[in-house]
Design goal:
Helix content is 0%, strand content 43%. The strands form 6 sheets. Strands 1, 6, 7, 11, 12, 13 and 14 form a 7-stranded antiparallel sheet that branches. Strands 15, 16, 17 and 20 form a 4-stranded antiparallel sheet that branches. The relative contact order is 0.18.
Length: 265
Protein backbone atom coordinates (compact mmCIF):
# COMPACT_ATOMS: atom_id res chain seq x y z
CA UNK A 1 0.00 0.00 0.00
CA UNK A 2 1.43 3.36 -0.97
CA UNK A 3 1.21 6.05 1.65
CA UNK A 4 0.26 9.63 0.96
CA UNK A 5 3.12 12.10 0.64
CA UNK A 6 2.33 15.68 1.61
CA UNK A 7 3.55 17.65 -1.38
CA UNK A 8 3.38 20.85 -3.31
CA UNK A 9 2.06 20.48 -6.84
CA UNK A 10 4.65 22.79 -8.33
CA UNK A 11 3.38 24.33 -11.54
CA UNK A 12 5.71 25.86 -14.10
CA UNK A 13 4.71 27.71 -17.26
CA UNK A 14 7.39 28.21 -19.88
CA UNK A 15 6.95 30.35 -22.95
CA UNK A 16 9.43 31.02 -25.72
CA UNK A 17 9.10 34.11 -27.94
CA UNK A 18 5.81 35.93 -27.43
CA UNK A 19 3.98 38.35 -29.68
CA UNK A 20 0.47 39.84 -29.68
CA UNK A 21 -2.07 39.78 -26.88
CA UNK A 22 -3.08 36.20 -27.70
CA UNK A 23 0.45 35.02 -26.96
CA UNK A 24 0.37 36.83 -23.61
CA UNK A 25 -1.54 33.74 -22.46
CA UNK A 26 0.34 31.13 -20.45
CA UNK A 27 -0.01 27.34 -20.47
CA UNK A 28 0.31 25.38 -17.23
CA UNK A 29 -0.55 22.00 -15.71
CA UNK A 30 -2.77 21.67 -12.62
CA UNK A 31 -2.33 18.77 -10.20
CA UNK A 32 -4.72 17.66 -7.48
CA UNK A 33 -4.13 14.48 -5.49
CA UNK A 34 -6.74 12.51 -3.56
CA UNK A 35 -6.16 9.67 -1.11
CA UNK A 36 -9.75 9.49 0.15
CA UNK A 37 -10.05 6.03 -1.45
CA UNK A 38 -6.80 4.02 -1.27
CA UNK A 39 -4.45 3.65 -2.97
CA UNK A 40 -5.22 7.16 -4.26
CA UNK A 41 -5.05 9.04 -7.53
CA UNK A 42 -3.98 12.30 -9.12
CA UNK A 43 -6.22 14.49 -11.28
CA UNK A 44 -4.41 16.55 -13.90
CA UNK A 45 -5.82 19.34 -16.05
CA UNK A 46 -4.46 22.07 -18.31
CA UNK A 47 -4.61 25.77 -17.51
CA UNK A 48 -4.60 28.45 -20.22
CA UNK A 49 -4.81 32.20 -19.89
CA UNK A 50 -3.70 34.42 -17.02
CA UNK A 51 -5.35 33.48 -13.71
CA UNK A 52 -4.38 30.25 -11.97
CA UNK A 53 -5.56 27.57 -11.46
CA UNK A 54 -8.25 27.79 -14.16
CA UNK A 55 -8.85 30.72 -16.48
CA UNK A 56 -10.20 29.72 -19.90
CA UNK A 57 -10.58 26.86 -22.34
CA UNK A 58 -7.73 25.94 -24.66
CA UNK A 59 -9.81 27.44 -27.48
CA UNK A 60 -11.84 30.57 -26.90
CA UNK A 61 -12.45 34.01 -28.35
CA UNK A 62 -9.58 35.34 -26.21
CA UNK A 63 -7.00 32.93 -27.63
CA UNK A 64 -6.26 29.33 -28.52
CA UNK A 65 -3.46 26.81 -28.16
CA UNK A 66 -3.00 23.40 -29.77
CA UNK A 67 -1.45 20.74 -27.55
CA UNK A 68 1.15 18.57 -29.27
CA UNK A 69 2.25 16.41 -26.32
CA UNK A 70 0.76 15.60 -22.91
CA UNK A 71 2.89 13.26 -20.83
CA UNK A 72 3.55 11.59 -17.49
CA UNK A 73 7.28 11.49 -16.72
CA UNK A 74 8.28 8.94 -14.10
CA UNK A 75 11.02 9.15 -11.45
CA UNK A 76 13.17 7.13 -13.85
CA UNK A 77 12.52 9.75 -16.60
CA UNK A 78 10.36 7.30 -18.57
CA UNK A 79 7.65 9.05 -20.59
CA UNK A 80 4.07 7.80 -20.91
CA UNK A 81 1.73 9.68 -23.26
CA UNK A 82 -1.50 11.03 -21.76
CA UNK A 83 -4.50 11.21 -24.14
CA UNK A 84 -4.59 14.66 -25.73
CA UNK A 85 -7.50 17.02 -25.11
CA UNK A 86 -9.98 17.56 -27.94
CA UNK A 87 -9.62 21.24 -28.79
CA UNK A 88 -12.42 22.71 -30.86
CA UNK A 89 -14.86 25.59 -30.82
CA UNK A 90 -18.01 24.33 -29.11
CA UNK A 91 -21.51 25.75 -29.44
CA UNK A 92 -22.79 27.63 -26.43
CA UNK A 93 -26.10 27.00 -24.71
CA UNK A 94 -27.99 30.07 -23.51
CA UNK A 95 -29.37 29.96 -19.97
CA UNK A 96 -32.74 31.38 -18.95
CA UNK A 97 -30.88 34.24 -17.29
CA UNK A 98 -28.86 35.30 -20.32
CA UNK A 99 -25.66 33.34 -19.58
CA UNK A 100 -23.72 31.41 -22.23
CA UNK A 101 -22.80 27.86 -21.16
CA UNK A 102 -19.86 26.49 -23.16
CA UNK A 103 -18.55 22.90 -22.97
CA UNK A 104 -14.88 22.14 -23.46
CA UNK A 105 -11.96 19.81 -22.77
CA UNK A 106 -9.20 20.97 -20.42
CA UNK A 107 -7.30 17.70 -20.54
CA UNK A 108 -8.85 16.49 -17.28
CA UNK A 109 -7.28 13.08 -16.72
CA UNK A 110 -7.10 10.68 -13.77
CA UNK A 111 -3.79 8.99 -12.91
CA UNK A 112 -4.46 6.16 -10.46
CA UNK A 113 -1.90 4.56 -8.16
CA UNK A 114 -1.50 0.79 -7.92
CA UNK A 115 0.54 -1.56 -5.73
CA UNK A 116 3.17 -1.49 -8.51
CA UNK A 117 3.54 2.31 -8.65
CA UNK A 118 7.18 3.41 -8.55
CA UNK A 119 7.87 5.81 -5.64
CA UNK A 120 9.50 9.15 -6.29
CA UNK A 121 8.86 12.43 -8.06
CA UNK A 122 6.66 12.53 -11.16
CA UNK A 123 6.26 15.26 -13.76
CA UNK A 124 3.14 15.95 -15.80
CA UNK A 125 4.06 17.98 -18.87
CA UNK A 126 2.15 19.62 -21.72
CA UNK A 127 3.72 21.08 -24.85
CA UNK A 128 2.01 23.19 -27.49
CA UNK A 129 2.61 23.03 -31.20
CA UNK A 130 4.99 25.70 -32.45
CA UNK A 131 3.37 28.63 -34.23
CA UNK A 132 5.05 31.33 -36.31
CA UNK A 133 4.40 34.91 -37.36
CA UNK A 134 6.60 36.36 -40.10
CA UNK A 135 6.74 39.68 -41.92
CA UNK A 136 8.46 39.73 -45.31
CA UNK A 137 8.82 41.52 -48.64
CA UNK A 138 7.61 39.55 -51.66
CA UNK A 139 9.04 39.49 -55.18
CA UNK A 140 7.00 42.57 -56.20
CA UNK A 141 8.24 44.60 -53.22
CA UNK A 142 5.05 44.38 -51.15
CA UNK A 143 5.23 43.94 -47.38
CA UNK A 144 3.25 40.92 -46.22
CA UNK A 145 2.67 38.88 -43.07
CA UNK A 146 1.98 35.18 -42.65
CA UNK A 147 1.79 32.46 -39.99
CA UNK A 148 4.62 30.47 -41.58
CA UNK A 149 8.31 30.11 -40.69
CA UNK A 150 10.82 31.78 -43.00
CA UNK A 151 11.93 28.54 -44.66
CA UNK A 152 8.36 27.86 -45.87
CA UNK A 153 7.89 31.22 -47.57
CA UNK A 154 8.63 31.07 -51.29
CA UNK A 155 9.88 34.03 -53.32
CA UNK A 156 10.61 36.39 -50.42
CA UNK A 157 13.13 39.13 -51.23
CA UNK A 158 13.77 39.92 -47.56
CA UNK A 159 12.31 39.46 -44.10
CA UNK A 160 11.13 42.19 -41.73
CA UNK A 161 10.80 39.90 -38.71
CA UNK A 162 9.92 36.36 -37.69
CA UNK A 163 8.83 35.04 -34.30
CA UNK A 164 8.23 31.54 -33.01
CA UNK A 165 5.90 30.71 -30.11
CA UNK A 166 5.94 27.48 -28.14
CA UNK A 167 4.55 26.93 -24.64
CA UNK A 168 5.38 24.20 -22.13
CA UNK A 169 3.71 23.56 -18.78
CA UNK A 170 5.03 21.25 -16.05
CA UNK A 171 3.81 20.16 -12.63
CA UNK A 172 5.44 17.88 -10.09
CA UNK A 173 4.06 15.46 -7.51
CA UNK A 174 5.71 12.88 -5.30
CA UNK A 175 4.74 9.36 -4.25
CA UNK A 176 6.12 8.19 -0.87
CA UNK A 177 9.16 10.44 -1.14
CA UNK A 178 10.60 13.38 -3.07
CA UNK A 179 13.39 12.49 -5.49
CA UNK A 180 15.32 14.99 -7.58
CA UNK A 181 13.55 15.25 -10.97
CA UNK A 182 15.55 15.23 -14.18
CA UNK A 183 15.47 17.42 -17.28
CA UNK A 184 13.05 16.13 -19.90
CA UNK A 185 14.77 17.85 -22.82
CA UNK A 186 12.59 20.85 -23.64
CA UNK A 187 14.17 23.86 -25.36
CA UNK A 188 13.42 26.01 -22.32
CA UNK A 189 13.18 24.11 -19.03
CA UNK A 190 12.86 24.91 -15.34
CA UNK A 191 13.73 22.29 -12.73
CA UNK A 192 13.31 22.63 -8.95
CA UNK A 193 16.37 21.83 -6.86
CA UNK A 194 14.41 22.12 -3.61
CA UNK A 195 12.36 19.35 -2.02
CA UNK A 196 8.93 20.73 -2.96
CA UNK A 197 7.12 18.30 -0.64
CA UNK A 198 8.11 20.31 2.42
CA UNK A 199 8.15 23.97 1.36
CA UNK A 200 6.80 26.45 3.90
CA UNK A 201 6.31 30.21 3.87
CA UNK A 202 9.70 31.90 4.18
CA UNK A 203 11.66 28.99 2.71
CA UNK A 204 14.09 29.59 -0.13
CA UNK A 205 13.23 27.68 -3.31
CA UNK A 206 15.97 27.03 -5.87
CA UNK A 207 15.68 26.27 -9.58
CA UNK A 208 17.85 25.22 -12.51
CA UNK A 209 16.97 26.89 -15.83
CA UNK A 210 18.28 25.69 -19.20
CA UNK A 211 17.87 26.84 -22.80
CA UNK A 212 18.64 24.22 -25.44
CA UNK A 213 20.29 22.13 -22.74
CA UNK A 214 22.66 24.88 -21.61
CA UNK A 215 22.46 27.09 -18.49
CA UNK A 216 20.49 30.28 -19.11
CA UNK A 217 21.87 33.51 -17.67
CA UNK A 218 21.61 37.30 -17.66
CA UNK A 219 24.01 38.82 -20.17
CA UNK A 220 24.22 41.38 -22.98
CA UNK A 221 21.72 39.30 -24.98
CA UNK A 222 18.98 39.68 -22.41
CA UNK A 223 17.93 40.02 -18.78
CA UNK A 224 16.43 36.62 -18.11
CA UNK A 225 14.36 36.07 -14.98
CA UNK A 226 11.74 33.77 -13.47
CA UNK A 227 8.22 35.13 -13.08
CA UNK A 228 6.39 33.51 -10.16
CA UNK A 229 2.77 33.83 -9.12
CA UNK A 230 0.00 31.52 -7.90
CA UNK A 231 -3.54 31.45 -6.56
CA UNK A 232 -2.16 31.78 -3.00
CA UNK A 233 0.13 34.75 -3.65
CA UNK A 234 0.47 37.27 -6.44
CA UNK A 235 -2.65 36.28 -8.33
CA UNK A 236 -5.24 37.57 -5.83
CA UNK A 237 -3.37 40.87 -5.42
CA UNK A 238 -2.13 41.06 -9.02
CA UNK A 239 1.60 41.06 -8.38
CA UNK A 240 4.44 38.71 -9.23
CA UNK A 241 7.78 37.67 -7.85
CA UNK A 242 10.84 37.78 -10.07
CA UNK A 243 14.28 36.27 -9.71
CA UNK A 244 17.23 36.85 -12.01
CA UNK A 245 18.69 33.75 -13.66
CA UNK A 246 22.47 33.65 -13.27
CA UNK A 247 24.49 30.81 -14.78
CA UNK A 248 21.43 28.59 -14.98
CA UNK A 249 20.37 29.15 -11.37
CA UNK A 250 17.54 31.16 -9.78
CA UNK A 251 16.03 31.26 -6.32
CA UNK A 252 13.15 32.93 -4.53
CA UNK A 253 11.57 33.02 -1.10
CA UNK A 254 8.18 31.37 -0.68
CA UNK A 255 5.79 34.12 0.50
CA UNK A 256 2.79 33.62 2.79
CA UNK A 257 -0.65 33.54 1.15
CA UNK A 258 -2.65 36.69 0.72
CA UNK A 259 -5.21 37.38 3.49
CA UNK A 260 -8.27 35.22 3.01
CA UNK A 261 -6.54 32.88 0.53
CA UNK A 262 -5.81 29.17 1.25
CA UNK A 263 -2.36 28.33 2.52
CA UNK A 264 0.15 26.65 0.25
CA UNK A 265 0.57 22.98 1.06
Amino acid sequence: MLRKLKLTGLTLALTALCTTTVYAHSLWVNINESFAHPPGHVITSLGWGHAMPLDDFLMSEAGAVEIEKYSLVGPDNSITPIPLPVIKQENATTSKTGMAIVPGDLGLRKISLTDKTMPGTYQVTAESKATYFTGYVDASGKHKMTTKPMDEIKGAKSFDFSTRYKAVGKSYFGIERWTQPKLVGYELEILPETDMSDVKAGDLVKFTVTLNGKPLTCDMKGMNYLHMTSNTFGGPDQYMLTAYIMNGKARSGCPPPAPGEPRSR
